[in-house]
């Protein structure tokens, strides 16, 4: 077949689609004068071959026809997640590195050092810069290589493609748009596919979307009946359909398009789409047509990086670097001015003759000063710590991978989920959080829904008492009596209901048994649940989109309406006690339409046909939506049910309203035509479907409401109480009702009776009266005025309490409608002030956008460090808006985790994440940055003092290699050890005394005052180093009687600097391990080994002759030995006195605890795994690790319980544990361990 012949069968169908598109455009633009036929004629004249011109809003795909699709230039299926390739690695990698100001600065210094005005060799600056860049590029290359290897595996995965009427295996990367593929059970879909046919009856298949959204429950997909026959190669090769669909986009849950086969145009929906990344389950194989490939698939278009976040300390570090630039500039200006003033021909011994170079020509002092300025810039370049960023990155990375990710205290056994640090940029930010924004469902609660109570026909059923009700009774001093469960009560997962009036068919004796029957059928029919397994009530399992929906179907089963089978067009329900007690009958209900739930409609409807021919619409949804759709004349039941809803909400239960409507055939047929048209629309399909659904979801009859309990997670109240003591203000942002949110806050210990509560709600009598009149403008104005008035009243009262210094905690409760107006620019300032005065804030009925807006209000308005925590897709915006985002690995998928910075399994793990790891990280990074600042300033100032002795000429005090290796070898390792292991108190004391966390909130360890103290001692010690060493060598002589020269004095001073700055770091440590001793001793030893080798080697083409044999000459004199002992002692004397006086007269809180517990080992806080004696091999290994001895601090006496030390002790005890990088060195120096604790 040639060109036109191949597409001729679908030509008429395409014409019909073109007409539909033109009609939609005409209708949307309101231009009635256009002639559709004229537009159609244009479509005909611009056709090129058999390829239809691409509409800007959709693409045309020719199935099973590669030649036709080739002209459209669709993207291939090869996927690359790497940042670089062979050509771009160096330029792009270097560009990324030089975006850092410090690296760019050292590049400029390296260039300057190659000019004649530089007093140092280019190697002085090039070597450390090269080492830093190489380390960073190697890290980038290693990470990118892992991504490349993973891409290679994915792209090479085989898939079966239809070619020449048979299935041929090709790699994924060779797949093209329009190909027909066969995917077998448990395999992943290689691209976004249109589901054509499968081995299951009725053209359905089951897929798992865990890689897409983390949900493990199976989803059902149904092929169009017209394509069911294209299952085997001989028949599939005849398929020549044409797909008109939307352009690639990142919307996972929507799809619009049409399939044209012959003269027939069939609408496509998400139910026919199989997305890349999902896998096939419970189906032997399926056949599909490729729609989107490679980076145009929906999963790849969603795989964008989490917004880049920088910690507050890192931004302060940038300011510190700028200050160092300023200090450098001042030092260079002083030297330059001094040089211009000093230069004079009267110093005849300098040889300043007429033809002297410009830098030393007294005839032009301005040029001398300018050139000296650049000379001194290169000489003092070490004031900026080049290795700081690399060291901090390494420290943070190890903190995440070895400490946070492997902390047994944050491991959740039930779900086998450890903590996960998804970024290492924000470790220290965890130690400074002041505001915590939390979702409720799945975050504070377990998201394990249980049917608990219900209201049917105005009658309440269910005798249980919730946790919230118990907390409320305890709060009011009322003692609740335990309700005895009946003998026939049932308690299974999803169902915790007890009421003899409904169970075992007793509902037949109710006041209105018919309404009870409608209630149970609504539960059994109105859903999208999939049954799995044996079709018996005891063994069947349900796959549901949410735990709520599963709980409702389980409830129907226990009430005697057992849903056990679903097909694409019907469901089967086994009904008990309907006609008479004890009788069981299987009933099939034909499912005509499913109007699915979305965030706009907030309800779900199913239109079904009874075996008797009765047409019924069942609807369930939020009470605010259902009440608007009810028919008139139901005031009594509406009022009663509303009271029941409020009672359920006060008990902390989640509620849904149920309603139904009888339809006649004519009404349904007319509506169904509009529904089919809306489903076929290529543009704004969702909006049109919502509009059509609203046409039939009206005049409903209220049946009743359900109440589902979602219990609090274990340890939530204790965690919130601990975090509150730590100075963290906690906000709950939830979509639940006002009463539910308040009671959950009480149950969580967030709000107490001792607090003054400010409640700003739209559920007032005045606002309800206005809403009943139905004027939206009047309603908006009244709510706005109410919010403004209430905010002013609450703020005035709060300021009164604050001014009178009344020790009263405040709590603010506000709902979504009021919050919408309170976030207005005119009122947000008042809301901000009121909320900052409140210890706790509860926002109810809020949307995902409002969650992000509230978070940004504190983050940008108050400039406070915020943390957002949630478990669902509706929490993603809040998580990304906060400084730190924490995702809960819950039952609502993994979208929150994928958007987060840190992931944990339970809310209570925040205690360890913030109070232990966050606080330690803040202390460690603060100390590392301050120490880098100190040691570089000390080193550079000694060179600065020498400038005054050299006529401001820029003469070096140290050899070039000393300057090059000072940061990268002689002082590098100890600071990394401190960054990994430093801590003031242990984990158990950090949690026992949460008030310690407030030191991080107040930024006590990285204030400018703290840095000023470090700078003062750097100034003091540099004077000691220079003048003591110079004074010691003034009359010093070597064994041959010669005076000590410049390089002798410089080497002696450098030795003192290396010894002193390393010992100063030891003094700054609260916690000292053998690794501290090894690293500091090793750094000093590395200096001596280097100088022995460096002084003993001489070549002709370098400046090494200055240092030749220097160390051997120095070590033969007693001046040297006396100097390297006395000078560090004198230099550190000031630090010793300051630390002693500070600890004695103005101690930090942690120093008081150190004194209190200095003779006591730290309490063991590891999880005990012996609750269940039946342990798996992996659990036994973890238990053995938990019982290992802990190393004791040699400084403060606190036990070291960081997880990074587990593997070393494990090997000594014969327990298998993951190896750590430092185990080899540690094992080499192993002594007989002294057990501190016997597990």
TrEMBL record:
Reported cofactor(s): Mg(2+)
GO terms of biological process kind: Golgi vesicle budding; phospholipid translocation
EC class name: translocase
Annotated P-type ATPase C-terminal domain residues: 897-1147
Listed EC numbers: 7.6.2.1
Entry-linked Pfam families: Cation_ATPase, E1-E2_ATPase, PhoLip_ATPase_C, PhoLip_ATPase_N
Primary location group: membrane
Binding-site list for ATP: 439-441, 549, 597, 620, 654, 734-736, 845, 851, 874-875
Enzyme active site: 439 (4-aspartylphosphate intermediate)
Ranges of residues in domain P-type ATPase A: 156-217
The UniProt record lists the keyword Coiled coil: no
All copies of domain P-type ATPase N-terminal, residue ranges: 61-125
Catalyzed chemical reaction(s): ATP + H2O + phospholipidSide 1 = ADP + phosphate + phospholipidSide 2
The entry's keywords: ATP-binding, Magnesium, Membrane, Metal-binding, Nucleotide-binding, Translocase, Transmembrane, Transmembrane helix, Transport
List of residues binding Mg(2+): 439, 441, 871, 875
Similarity comment: Belongs to the cation transport ATPase (P-type) (TC 3.A.3) family. Type IV subfamily.
Record-given protein name: Phospholipid-transporting ATPase
Organism per entry: Pinus taeda (Loblolly pine)
Gene this chain is encoded by: ALA1
């Amino acid at each position: 077949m040639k060109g036109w012949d191949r597409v001729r069968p679908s030509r008429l169908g395409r014409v019909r689609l073109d007409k539909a598109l033109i009609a939609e455009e005409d209708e949307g633009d309101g231009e009635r004068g256009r002639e559709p036929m004229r537009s159609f004629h244009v479509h005909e004249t611009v056709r090129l071959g058999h390829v239809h011109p691409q509409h800007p809003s959709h693409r045309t795909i020719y199935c099973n026809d590669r030649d036709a699709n080739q002209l459209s230039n669709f993207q291939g299926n090869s996927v690359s997640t790497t940042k670089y390739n062979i050509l771009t690695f160096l330029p792009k990698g270097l560009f990324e590195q030089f975006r850092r100001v410090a690296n760019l600065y050292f590049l400029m210094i390296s260039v300057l050092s190659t000019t004649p005005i530089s007093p140092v060799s280019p190697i002085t600056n090039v070597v450390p810069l090269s080492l830093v860049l190489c380390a960073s590029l190697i890290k980038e290359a290693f990470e990118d290589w892992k991504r490349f290897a993973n891409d290679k595996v994915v792209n090479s995965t085989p898939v079966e493609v239809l070619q020449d009427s048979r299935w041929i295996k090709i790699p994924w990367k060779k797949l093209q748009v329009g190909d027909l593929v066969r995917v077998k059970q448990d395999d992943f879909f290689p691209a976004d596919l249109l589901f054509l046919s499968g081995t299951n009856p009725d053209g359905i298949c089951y897929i798992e979307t865990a890689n897409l959204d983390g949900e493990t429950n199976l989803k059902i997909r149904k092929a169009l009946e017209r394509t069911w026959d294209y299952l085997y190669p001989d028949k599939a090769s005849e398929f020549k359909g044409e797909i008109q669909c939307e352009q690639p986009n990142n919307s996972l849950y929507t799809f619009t398009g049409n399939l044209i086969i012959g003269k027939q145009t069939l609408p496509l929906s998400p139910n026919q789409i199989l997305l890349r990344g999902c896998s096939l389950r419970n189906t032997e194989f399926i056949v599909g047509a490729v729609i989107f490939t490679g980076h145009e698939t929906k999963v790849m278009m969603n795989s964008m990086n989490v917004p880049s976040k920088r910690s507050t300390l890192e931004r302060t570090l940038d300011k510190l670097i700028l200050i160092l630039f300023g200090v450098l500039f001042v030092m260079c200006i002083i030297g330059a001015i001094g040089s211009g003033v000093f230069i004079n021909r009267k110093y005849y011994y300098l040889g300043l003759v007429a033809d002297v170079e410009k830098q030393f020509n007294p005839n032009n002092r301005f040029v001398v000063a300018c050139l000296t300025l650049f000379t001194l810039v290169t000489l003092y370049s070490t004031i900026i710590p080049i290795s700081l960023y690399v060291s901090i990155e390494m420290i943070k990375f190890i903190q995440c991978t070895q400490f946070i990710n492997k902390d047994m205290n944050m491991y959740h056994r039930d779900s086998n989920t450890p903590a996960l640090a998804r970024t290492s940029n924000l470790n220290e930010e965890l130690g400074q959080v002041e505001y915590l924004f939390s979702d409720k469902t799945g975050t504070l609660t377990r998201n394990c829904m249980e049917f608990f109570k219900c209201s049917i026909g105005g009658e309440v059923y269910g005798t249980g008492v919730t946790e919230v009700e118990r907390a409320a009774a305890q709060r009011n001093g009322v003692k609740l009596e335990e309700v005895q469960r009946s003998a026939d009560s049932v308690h299974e997962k999803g169902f915790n209901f007890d009421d003899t009036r409904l169970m075992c068919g007793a509902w037949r004796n109710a006041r209105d048994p018919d309404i009870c029957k409608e209630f149970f059928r609504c539960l059994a029919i109105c859903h999208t649940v999939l049954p799995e397994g044996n079709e018996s009530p005891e063994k069947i399992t349900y796959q549901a989109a949410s735990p709520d929906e599963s709980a409702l179907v389980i409830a129907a089963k226990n009430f005697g309406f057992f849903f056990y089978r679903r097909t694409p067009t019907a469901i089967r329900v086994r009904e008990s006690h309907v006609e008479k007690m004890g009788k069981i009958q299987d009933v099939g209900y034909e499912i005509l339409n499913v109007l699915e739930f979305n965030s706009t409609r907030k309800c779900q409807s199913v239109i079904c046909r009874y075996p008797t021919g009765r047409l019924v619409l069942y609807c369930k949804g939020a009470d605010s939506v259902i009440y608007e759709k009810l028919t008139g004349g139901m005031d009594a039941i509406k009022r009663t049910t509303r009271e029941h809803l409020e009672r359920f909400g006060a008990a902390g239960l989640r509620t849904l309203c149920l309603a139904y409507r009888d339809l006649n055939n004519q009404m349904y047929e007319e509506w169904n035509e509009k529904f089919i048209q809306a489903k076929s629309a290529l543009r704004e399909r969702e909006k049109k479907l919502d509009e059509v659904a609203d046409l039939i979801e009206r005049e409903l009859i209220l049946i009743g409401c359900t109440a589902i309990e979602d219990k609090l997670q274990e340890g939530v109240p204790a965690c919130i109480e601990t975090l509150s003591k730590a100075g963290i203000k906690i906000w709950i942002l939830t979509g639940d009702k006002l009463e539910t949110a308040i009671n959950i806050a009480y149950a969580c210990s967030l709000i107490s009776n001792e607090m003054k509560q400010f409640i700003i709600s739209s559920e007032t009598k005045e606002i309800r009266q206005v809403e009943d009149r139905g004027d939206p403008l009047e309603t908006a104005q009244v709510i706005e005025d109410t919010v403004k008035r209430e905010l002013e009243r609450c703020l005035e009262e709060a300021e009164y309490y604050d001014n009178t210094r009344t020790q009263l905690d405040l709590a603010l409760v506000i709902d979504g409608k009021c919050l919408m107006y309170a976030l207005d620019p005119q009122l947000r300032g008042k809301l901000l002030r009121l909320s900052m005065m409140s210890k706790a804030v509860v926002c109810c009925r809020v949307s995902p956008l409002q969650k992000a807006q509230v978070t940004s209000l504190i983050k940008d308005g108050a400039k406070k460090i915020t943390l957002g925590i949630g478990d669902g897709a509706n929490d993603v915006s809040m998580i990304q808006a906060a400084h730190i985002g924490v995702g809960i690995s819950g039952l609502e998928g993994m979208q929150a985790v994928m958007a987060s910075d840190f992931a944990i399994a339970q809310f209570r793990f925040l205690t360890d994440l913030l109070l232990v790891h966050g606080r330690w990280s803040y202390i460690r990074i603060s100390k590392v940055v301050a120490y880098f600042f100190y040691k570089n300033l000390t080193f550079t100032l000694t060179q600065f003092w020498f400038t005054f002795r050299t006529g401001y000429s820029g003469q070096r005090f140290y050899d070039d290699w000393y300057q090059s290796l000072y940061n990268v070898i002689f002082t590098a390792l100890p600071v990394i050890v401190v960054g990994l292991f430093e801590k003031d108190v242990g984990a158990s004391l950090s949690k026992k005394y949460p008030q310690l966390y407030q030191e991080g909130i107040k930024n006590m360890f990285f204030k400018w005052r703290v840095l000023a103290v470090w700078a003062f001692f750097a100034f003091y010690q540099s004077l000691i180093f220079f003048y003591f060493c110079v004074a010691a060598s003034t009359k010093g002589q070597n064994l041959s009687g010669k005076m000590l020269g410049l390089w002798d004095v410089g080497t002696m001073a450098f030795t003192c600097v290396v010894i002193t700055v390393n010992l100063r770091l030891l003094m700054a440590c609260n916690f000292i391990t053998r690794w501290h001793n090894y690293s500091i001793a090793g750094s000093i030893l590395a200096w001596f080994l280097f100088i022995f080798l460096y002084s003993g080697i001489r070549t002709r083409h370098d400046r090494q002759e200055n240092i030749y044999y220097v160390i051997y000459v120095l070590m033969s004199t007693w001046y040297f030995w006396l100097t390297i002992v006395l000078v560090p002692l004198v230099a550190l004397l000031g630090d010793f006195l300051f630390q002693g006086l500070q600890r004695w007269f103005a101690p930090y809180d942690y120093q008081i605890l150190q004194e209190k517990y200095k003779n006591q080992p730290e309490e063991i806080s590891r999880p005990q795994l012996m609750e269940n004696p039946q342990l798996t091999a992996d659990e036994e290994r973890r238990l053995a690790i938990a019982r290992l001895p802990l190393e004791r601090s040699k400084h403060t006496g606190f036990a070291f319980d960081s997880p990074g030390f587990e593997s070393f002790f494990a090997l000594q005890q014969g327990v298998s544990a993951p190896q750590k990088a430092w185990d080899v060195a540690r094992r080499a120096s192993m002594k007989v361990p002294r057990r501190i604790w016997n597990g």
